[in-house]
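Example pasted here:
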Amino acid sequence: MASQDPICQAVNLSDSQPCTAVATTWENVFCRFHGKQCYGLYIGYKRRNAKLDALPSNVPSYLREAKVPLANETFEGVGDEKTLEEIHAHIYHEYVLLGKVIDARKLHHKHFYPVKLDYSHQAYIDTLSNRRYIVLRALERLETRTAQVLYEKEKWYTWIREVQKDEEATREKESKKVKFEAAMFKRHWSKMQTHLRVQREKKEKQIQDTYLETAYHERMSAVDSEDDAEMWDPIEDVLEDERSRYVDLIKHFLWMEVFAEVDENEKPTQKVNESSDPSADIAKLAISEDKPPKDGNKKSKSRAAKATSAPSSVKAQNNSVSSQDRRTGQSRIMELMDNDRGKNSDRLTDPDKSNIETEAEMRKRLKEGVEKNYGSPEDPMMLESIEVPRGTHLKTAPLTDEEIDSLTKDIKEIKLLLFCRLLLSHASLLPAAVRASSVEEFLNDPEIAESDLRDLCLKVEQPSLQDIRDACADLIRGDESETEDDGDIHEKESIEDVIFHEHRYGHLQEPEWFKNNIHAQGGKLIGNIKSDEISTKASPKKRHPRQQKTKVQACGNNKSDEMSKKAFLKKRHSRQQKMKVQVCGKSICNYSRESSMSRDGWLQFSVMAKDCDLKHAVQLCRNWDEFSQLNFLTGWQYFPASNWAAWACDLSTHSLHELGFFPYFKDMQALKHSHYHQVGARSQNRRQHNIVHARNIIVGYMRRNDSVTRRFLQYLTMRTGEVLVLVRDGKTGKIVTAPEKEHLWTMRRKEGLGRASKNEWDILLQVGPDYFDVVDAAREWRLGFEDYYDVWIWDFLPCQSSNSLYKVIASELRKAWRVTQPLDVYKHREPFLRSLTREKETMRVRSIQPGEQVRSLWDDVNDPNNVFITAEGQVHETTAKWCFSYNEADAAEDRVLFSDELINPNRNVPFKEVTTPITRAQTTPLNVTKSVAEGAREINKLDGDKSHLPDADTDTDADEDDEDDSGRVEGNRIKTRWTQLPLWEDAIAMIKHNHISSERKRLLREVGLLNESFQMIRGGINDLRGAFSAIVEELDPVMIEEKGSAGVLWEACRAGDLEPGAQEKHAETCEILGGILGSHQSTLSTDWVWFLVDILKWLELRTDYKTYTHDRQAGWPHPFIAQDIVKAFVLMAIFFPNLKVCLPVTDCFESEKGKEYSNSALLNPGERAKTIPDVRTRTSFKLRPKKFWKEWNDMFQPGQTQDQFYVHAYPVDRNAALRSIIAKLYLAGIVAPAYLDNLPIAVPGFAVANTEPHRPDKLDLFIDYADRYDAVRYRLTLPAPVPPGDWPDLLPAAQAFAAKNAGARFAILRVWSAPHFYPTVLGKDSERAVSFLDSAKRSWVWRFMPKDMPDSEVCMYSRIKMRLESLKQLQVGKRVIHRCEVILVMGADELDLLKYATAVTFAIQTKPWRSEIDPWKSFVNVDLGFLEGLDPYWLD
């Protein structure tokens, strides 16, 4: 060939290389072969264009008569299968014809005129491309409608449509698909070489055949016929090649047909044209939605500028990221809050799933193992342990040939199942997939469009981890059916619970929780919602940070993840019917997302998704059991995945995982963040300071509704002197427990001039909604289900080392698991450990096959040569006990805290904080809101039946002692603490209907029972509805608080009475007195009313007080005088059966219900006097002899000198007795965890278990208030205290009175008190003075005055004296004498004694309603001989 001969300008269709033949045709532009090919291609697309133009004349009748364009046609009006087939044939023919026209024009332009620019030609191609896109979407809608007509009777159709709708909602644009397709072919370029070689061989043979026929063609006419040109049209071959490329790639991905391996020794060409990359061809041939640029030079220049500036911007970004990486923990959180830079948060990037291994590559990886990727562990790693033996920390353990063969066989099947599952989301492919009996048959279906194959190929190359997980679950499940287990326990809440919870934690949780719960309770109130639906409708989905778009997340890149998460949660809560569908001969299930996957399934998943991290995998778990099992197997190196080794590779995190706590955020660098800089006044500069305090914090997941979790969280809430805990329910978003507001901070600062003590703290960071959102935005992983508690734990004291917080958490977790020795840590995993074994040669952990006799991991754990090393570095023998293990004292305390576990030790119940009446009262003032809540609750008890509501002012309060927040419903009456008593109302009604003398009218006016203007008997606060609301709004809020809190406090006091039989006696008293006060008077006698009127006149009291004194020591004025005097009279009247005035009371014992108590020991003082109460004495700390504390001092002093805390030397039996008593007081609300450092320098008292002489065999609680370290600087001083030695003796006084009054009667009234405390509420300022440490190193405060408090007897004596002396008519010191809480009342006869005893009882029990007379320890209406025969205990 001469050098001057022209060269053909065409580009080969086979390899996209320029032709090197001599140009001999078309004016020396093409060689003879390409000339024929160019002309044939031109004639071909012209002919197809003509067919395309003729299509509108053959449109089916439905499309011809349609009133909407094809782009908007949904085909919903077509219900005939034959019509659908006719429309489908037409649209599909148009779609194929458009594709051929577009591809032929592109081929013609690219391979024969690559240099010339023809914009009109490109514009026409764009028009055809848009038309093809419209036709394609119409074809999909048509096939969807066809599937609906054909399969709408199938159960699986609804599920399939949901999957397809999700796919359509997240479908990528066509331009993005083109880029993805090009990238896909570029990634798999080496695998495509074999396919291209076949094309080249076919092309070369075609060229050779052309030259052999040259002579024949020269003899033909100069102008070739059109039929001859059609033979040279290559479009059919090109389309078939394009289709085969997609099919070949899909088969490669599915391991169905492996491409021939590329010869690695083959030298690549020195210079390869860019167009030789098939991805470039695809990008140019595929449909494009972008318009061609109007100014190519300008566009190119802009792209060049961007390309030039890219490296510098990337470098700057990398520098920014590296700068941020230096900030971790809470510093990082503060930075995100301040700068609103959630886009740079440490999100976990998606794994690369495009690197699809061949079977040979996977076998090699599993056979040889791969290097482990530990990431960047923060703490010391766990090496050479029983989980990670020597030699396995660098590479994954190799698998045996048998395991590899089994895995590859399963993975092949999983790939087919995965392919079938991906087909479900393609509406256009579903009919063909259902028809096909195998994947091979489906791929060979000629009706499948090339674009569908392309989309499917993109999906198969990069399936989601969820799809892989579901395919693995499909293989393990097979055709088995699953049992549905909904073990969720719904927590029912009352409207009062909702209101108080909002007052307590409203600042921490989202407003939606309160709104939805109130709405649900309102629906229940009016009967629109069933009571069993309240738990679900009133449990709103929390505004979980991962399901919302906060400021921080608005910059994030996890929108698709959030969308998929929301979709999953939506499907999860709408219970779907389980069903299957046959796709390509495989059974695909729709419920694999809701069921756990076995360990074999996760093994297959870890092999297939080799580049994913375990942090990705845990998000695919569907319940806690699956997540826990996956974590356990990963820790024992069951999975041959290199990236999974980074999960809990450090010792501390691994230890927490073993115990069921899974941290996802922590900052243990409080010492690093904290500093203290201060310049004193003696320096040259002014006094100034700069102080920063930080607390260690750790946040993690724990199992919801689990007994271990409940115990652990309960233990932490009792250690407020060491750690603080906040718990959020992952299912409802409810804040289950949290510390007080002032303790929510984790970082604070104080800076400025002057003294630091005079400056206020500036809170830099505190736990709350903002903290929740930013931590969620910055963390790397989360769970894919909601059955968990979100647990936030941080130090109480700032500037602590990291070990302090970890030790508390680890210790309490071990106790929650009831670990007594190191081996118990593995005990709950015994079934799993027995099913696993470790290969001796490879150290690979695998499952034990059925019938196989090998050494299990449980045997390895129980090896006697093992030693146990804690995260703190302590070494223990596996069977030895250590100081922080579960012991008898813990067990004794648990029997009180978790008494329900005595019946069923593994009850799965939700964690509830200990909410006592005291905490409820302290949460919010008992104001009108509380009263309305009370009324709503009582109306709620009527189940929405309005006919049960009272019509008149007949509301009653039937229980003398039950004045708590809950009223009672009896018959048609709603009784609360505000209403009058039925016994009193009946008597008043009788007086109304009888004639009243003028003298008695005057008497009634003097005591306020007769209205001056209306001449009506007054009944007090009575109306629950209407008028009651108006009255309550006008009442004094202090009165509402004191009156309301009285019942709450008494409820706590009664629960804290640990005397044996005390609860039963109190219940019996309530039944007797409640029955009398709530009954209707059966006799016509009203003498008892006039008796009380005389007492009121004698005491100079009125019943119509409109004012309320704010003096807490004063007993009146208040509007409840009538109630209190009636209750006092009834309590005393039961002991005077012979008095006519007491007839209405004593007659109650003749009724059918009263006869049950006619022989009660309460009415038999002689019998009661024989039994001395089995309680400790009231003696306070200061008055006890020194020998009482000797044994305690002997234990305390050695520990003090050796710098050890006394808990380590405390006897077990005393520890158990002590802690069980404290636990009972804690549940009652008498004591509470203190926000005080758990050291003697901050807490003055020590809890001691000891015995007393009268109870030598019974240990009881005593508090040592020696305050050796001056924890309390300012002590309480009493004005004019009367020491016990100066108290009067009661018996001599009674003897002297009896000597002067023949027939004298006496009453010994004992003011109620519990064995360990008096019912006197302590203020916040006084709580620290009586705080104490228990034997578990926990700090506590008393809510009521403890009897061990120094001078507690003196305080009680002074308080009673002041109350009795407020009624000068009682003649205190003459007719009434008291010795501490014991009061002697003396009367000349029974009626006189009843008068004085009623007055004394009234004085004790009235405002502020914090004291009561204990009838079981009182002796009323007795003579002197009875007193002289009493044991001295009763008179002291």
Q: What stands out?
A: The mean pLDDT is 76. The first strand starts at residue 580 and ends at 583.
